[in-house]
Write a structure and sequence with these properties.
Elements: H1 13-20, H2 34-44, E1 57-60, H3 63-78, H4 96-113, H5 120-129, E2 138-145, H6 150-169, E3 173-177, H7 184-191, E4 197-206, H8 224-227
The chain binds flavin mononucleotide.
Residues 22-23, 25, 105, 130, 175-179, 201, 219 line the site of flavin mononucleotide (FMN).
Length: 232
């Protein structure tokens, strides 16, 4: 007798976390207890790394240091100070297939905000919020020791995702901020960071403001067949 196909099981704890996490760009004005935040970092560091080298540093930026950093970054961006990244993030030039994904992500963001395509001022205002860590209660700068290659960045990336999911599990939200990596020298100077560290990205973390239109931004992923194939 033919047995019916088993139903796909409901999302378990991990799947549900991964599905509910999304980048959050507006936060409640409510602090994150430092003991809770440190617990997230300890959990994130359980991420694996090649030879267990555990690359990277997390710098929580607060008070006057945060003000200094945000002001310096906004100034550089407004003044169009030439950017000199520590590492290349995006392919240059961006292939058309990837460009389409980038445009779709931008449309999701600006669509949620109601910022029209040609509204340069509206887009600029949102972009500048990157440099204020979206006013999140926790502002992080993430660096990596200069001598690491792509493998170290991969390890650190796993740790970053683990941090985001650990936050999600505690009802917290986050957004990685690659925009910071456009001005590594300014970040190092404002925070007196060691010259031996490369600026990888920033991260905002805190309690989501569920009423903020920007947090309605949702993105989709490529179908499985676009990135997974069986070779025999
Ligand atoms: C390393 C990294 C850097 C990012 N940099 C930025 C950024 O500078 N500004 C921003 O608004 N979003 C940034 N994002 C968020 C991405 O746009 C977002 O992850 C992507 O569109 C998928 O959406 P989701 O996170 O809501 O699933 C970054 C994400 C990652 C992983």
């Amino acid at each position: 007798m033919l047995r019916p196909e088993p139903m796909a099981p409901a999302a378990d704890g991990f799947e549900a976390l991964a599905q509910s996490r999304h980048s959050v760009r507006a936060y409640l004005d409510r602090p994150v207890p430092s003991a809770l935040f440190e617990r997230l970092l300890v959990t994130a560091r359980l991420a694996p790394s090649g030879a267990n080298l555990q690359p990277g540093h997390f710098w929580a930026v607060e008070g006057a240091a945060r003000e200094r950093l945000s002001a310096a970054l906004s100034r550089a961006w407004r003044d169009q100070v030439p950017q000199a990244e520590d590492y290349g993030y995006f392919p240059r030039p961006m292939p058309m297939q990837l460009r389409k994904r980038q445009v779709a992500a931008a449309q999701a963001l600006y669509g949620a905000l109601g910022v029209a395509r040609g509204d340069e001022a509206g887009r600029a205002a949102q972009f500048e919020r990157n440099f204020r860590f979206f006013d999140a209660p926790v502002a992080l700068v993430i660096t990596i020791e200069r001598d690491f290659g792509a493998g170290g960045f991969m390890d650190l990336g796993m740790c970053l995702h683990a941090l985001m999911l650990a936050a999600e599990a505690q009802g917290l939200a986050s957004c990685a901020i690659g925009a910071l990596a456009s001005y590594p020298q300014i970040v190092r100077e404002a925070l007196c960071l060691p010259a031996t560290d490369l600026v990888v990205c920033g991260m905002a973390l805190g309690w989501e403001d569920a009423q903020a239109p920007v947090n309605r931004t949702r993105t989709v992923r490529e179908p499985l067949a676009r990135y997974f194939q069986v070779l025999r």
